[in-house]
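yo

u said u wanted the structure for the complex thing, so here. seqs first:
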Amino acid sequence: MEAILTDCVRNSLQHLIYRNAIFMCERLCAEFPSEKNMQLLASCYLQNNQAHCAYHILKGTHMAQSRYLFALSCFQMDLLNEAEAALSPNESCPEVPNGAAGHYLLGLVYRYTDRRQSAINHFNQALSLDPLLWAAYEELCVLGAAEEAPKVFDEGASLCIQKQYIHQGSTSQSFQAQNEEHEISMNRSLGSEDVSPRKQKHIHGHNLRDVSGNHHGTISNQPLNGGPTTSLPFYNTPSPMAAQSQLSGVAPPPLCRNALPNGPSTRTYGADSTPRVTVNTAIPGPRRKFVDEGKLRKVSERLFSDSGQRRSMRLAGESVNTSSSTSIISGNLISHSSKYLGGCKSGMLSSRSLTIRKGQSWASENADEGGHQEICDESRLNISNSSSSPCGGNGSVEPEGAIRSSGALSSSKVIGGASDVLSLLRLLGEGFRLSCLCRCQDALNIYMKLPQKHYNTGWVLSQVGRAYFELVDYLEANRAFSLARIASPYSLEGMDIYSTVLYHLKEDMKLSYLAQELISTDRLAPQSWCAMGNCYSLQKDHETALKNFQRSVQLNSRFAYAHTLCGHEYVALEDFENGIKSYQTALRIDSRHYNAWYGLGMVYLRQEKFEFSEHHFRMASQINPLSSVIMSYLGTALHALKRNNEALEMMERAVLADKKNPLPLYQKANILVSMENLDGALGVLEELKEYAPCESSVYALMGSIYKRRNMYDKAMLHFGLALDLKPSATDVAAIKAAIEKLHVPDEIEDICESSD
Amino acid sequence: MADSSEGEEEGKLSGGNQQLAVDEELREMAKKAAWSVSSCKPGNGVASIRDDNLDSYWQSDGAQPHLVNIQFQKKVRLQLVVLYVDFKLDESYTPSKISIRAGDGFHNLKEIKAVELVKPTGWVYISLSGTDPRETFVNTFMLQIAILSNHLNGRDTHVRQIKVYGPRPNPIPRQPFQFTSNEFITYSILR
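structre next:
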């Protein structure tokens, strides 16, 4: 009975029927109240986005896996203290539970409780346990503490992966025969022996994904199958498999049974893709309540697309997984692949298309009912979607391919596969690390080295867009982001930045279209509301903009950029107090978020607290040392502090840092004017006139300088030019007043100082 | 301002706009100001002129002139006052002669503008700018809107909304002029 119930629960979980899973699991726990069953129940709740239920179920449990699940629930409920207590080694258990995943989660807890060094330690440990735990590397990059990617994903990492797989291989030794024999038919007639190693590997995949999913705090992605069985310190231990094979003696293994209701044709699909779907859907939150059996497929599609958006940060990790499977599977399936290699549309990654086509072809062979075919097609669509940007549960492909290979392939294939994955990770990691260090041009160069099929994925393209954004090259950023939108229209990764790019470009039509699209894609994502807020802000409706950004903050209070945007809007509304609070909140979440430092600098500059201003601009400049905009403002703050020489030096540096930025030149002229170096200032402004012939303020400043030098004709000419270029009403008033008083020298001071 | 109301001649304003439309360069200033009125009927107090609700109104309850005082925390630059009045609903309660005064406080208010409304319904725009370019804005701590008389010799008055606008500050602090070209604006802020 226990086996049947357990099986039923897993079956339901795999088909995303959480309601059923929870109900059945409760029966199971009532009948057999073991901790493992409790874990299963908890993971059901976690997948159903009910972390609080899992929390109560697991409170006070001691097994490693329970502690991990408990910590996960705590983390999702923002009970960081309890999460930390559950994860930290204690007398009964000297290790962090659940290996790399546990370390990663503990690292996150430390990060959000502002203990940077401990967080870094744990992320590093997670990485050393599992070099493919990209999410941990990503966190390290965000913390600005990542080692160079080539060092992290090096030979040692390769050995580590090999060890994992060889270990696996030995445990699944007994099933090799069948594996080889049923190369093709294994999916059609899944023997229990086939399933168990796979399952085990799935656990691995899930664990990986879980943790990375948690990053966003909204996600509960529990080890589907691993929940009850993996109580061991490392996820790929043989025990789950053993449990599975035992099970299979009693009842057909879950995967196999999953497929039954759908008939033979979909069975293949079920075996190959269900885990993927499950994984994807395990993520998004409240919408899960819509899931009922009838609508399941549709919903799962929706969820599927959601998952891409939510789990943005991990994309690269998956792409890596994929590539591993590519190499490994290809070794195994060459003979078949040739059969199914059709015209490969879009940038489908070969491994996935292989697996998928395999499923499809069986479907067409075996399926007499069109319905099944349709299901398969849909699944294929979904999957190809996900493959165009490496998001979602592609990881499950990897374990599959890997397990086959681990049994059937020699260790040389594993070595090859591992080195392929790692070489990809090296590029992605180095690119991401550099862009987190604001060395954007270097990052772009690294990204350019990526293979085309990886470059053209949503994650990479939006990273490229972000890099251009940091370089203040909004046109290129716009281009990259539009490509990213095409590559993965459902992904929200970086779309907040994209909306800001459009804001800078004043593309109000495109911006409102983007905002509408994002909202209709996922109205529970913070990025969507950031885009909407930017849209209102561009229309100068700062109050509505602020409301939108606040909504974004409500949806994910750890989304630093939304706080910063709130700050910008408060400042636009001249509510500096709340503006400062928002910026500070952003910095609490991510102290390397230089936009918030910059925002604080601007507030203090406006409030004439120049020392504060200088300090904050300096902090921003330390994080993003190449930004000419920040340098220019740092110079302005120094100028306000009457440290003119330093200010001039800073402006020179800013000019060199970005030749396209006219601001530092203009500020230099301002400084020179205040230093009474009128000729120097005029020279600079003449130069500027060439660059920005439509800038009213340049002519206005020139006019006031000529006036000061009593060159009234020239002054008149430049004031006139300035007026023609439609300055603001305030400036019109100031310039007209200056013209009327052209021959009264004192008046000039007023213009120069009537700044605000 | 110029487009704001129909038939402006020598301080006489008639008509009124159903939609509140104000230049993008201006923003509402008086949210943080202290508002007070010379007198009011219970339930139709000073809050009614700031509640963004055109159905509620402030009703005075005393001798003319009826005063609305707006005191700012610091010296502000103002350019435009907008009233919502409705002759169709309020008839003899509708203000006709209005004087706008500015100063540092109650002790030194000076009239800066006087207008006469003629059967207005809707938003009525009263620009505070003078003819000299240097008088585009009024630099003041306090603004007083005095309703000197009503239509049809009515005694008490109804005003449904009052808004006060001033120029937006330069988005870039410490600059003599605002930037106008895309090249400059793009580089002038991070976000």
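The two ends of chain A are 79 Å apart (CA to CA). Residues 173-408, 751-756 of chain A have pLDDT under 50 and may be disordered.
cya
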